User: Fold SPBc2 prophage-derived glycosyltransferase SunS from Ruminiclostridium hungatei.
Amino acid sequence: MITVSLCMIVKNEEQVLARCLDSISSEVDEIIIMDTGSSDETKSIARRYTNMIYDFEWIDDFAAARNAAFAKANMDYILWMDADDVFEADQLNKFAELKKSLNPDVDSVSMNYILSSDEYGNIQFKVRRNRLVKRANNFRWIGAVHEYLEVYGNTLQSDISVTHKSLSHDGDRNLNIYEKRLARGEEFSPRDLYYFANELFDHRMYPRAINLYEQFLSGDKGWVEDNISSCSKLADCYHYMENYESELQSVLRSFRYSSPRPEFCCRLGYYFLQKNNVLSATFWYKTAVQEQSEETWFSNPTYSTWLPHLQLCVCYDRIGNHKLAYLHSEVARQYRPDDQRILSCQQYLKSILNSNEQQ
Assistant:
């Protein structure tokens, strides 16, 4: 059975650190905490779980801090987590089984990273991250902000999930780092341009965000998933700026990089529905719910589950096919059983169907 070092970087995480470590400590062989300047009880909490606690002088570089934590590891493999991440009980069991069965030839294990779920437990957004890596390979983190772990070799795509459960977030931290780098005249990589644009987007600085997304895409050197995401964010920028023609063009632009993804299908469905072109809207919503054969590292199941089915309910109602509309509302209700929009739609359709039966 392999041994595992858990490596974390932390700062002022007293609210969540114990929750994180409680969720995983039983299945790791050592815990390494790299503190980047806590002023609360973070280090006191960490001492309940480990004596391997180190200080790292913060230099606005997340990769440097993570690499410093990795350098302290001693076990066969390194697992990384953030303080507001957890392994749910069923996922911890899967991780325990993985430890017992993992072939030592595996260099990296990727896991799902669940970033958000709705009140019914439906996953709203998830990504796949290289989460467990062989220590002997000396894999390195790259990037001062939105860092990534550069891996190679034999990668196992597991079905294990880590769940992100943030209680608070320093919303300006990353943007400030990018602004400092810009002021110093640093040259940005394509990845930097993309994530800088995302920070500007999150701060509603839409014209600046558009400029950086365009720089990123025009360079034609980005990862395909970031290209597709940029098209989505550009569409959002133009939508908030009420430039609907450019929004549409951004949606269509995504087709340069991949077959139509459910999100863009739903966007097109909405566009045509607003134009009262119900047949075209129906086509795109039906495309959204079809099974996607392409495996992607980013996923928002909302656009392939309840949302397009609810919209198909609207489409079929408009053309008078109330039975089919009701069937789609039933599918939507399977995902969101108490959603008042879906329940109201069903109540309305039942009244029409009952009236037709009595005639």
Remarks:
- The chain has a mean pLDDT of 95.
- Residues 4-164 form a domain with the Spore Coat Polysaccharide Biosynthesis Protein SpsA; Chain A fold (CATH 3.90.550.10).
- The longest helix spans residues 340-358.
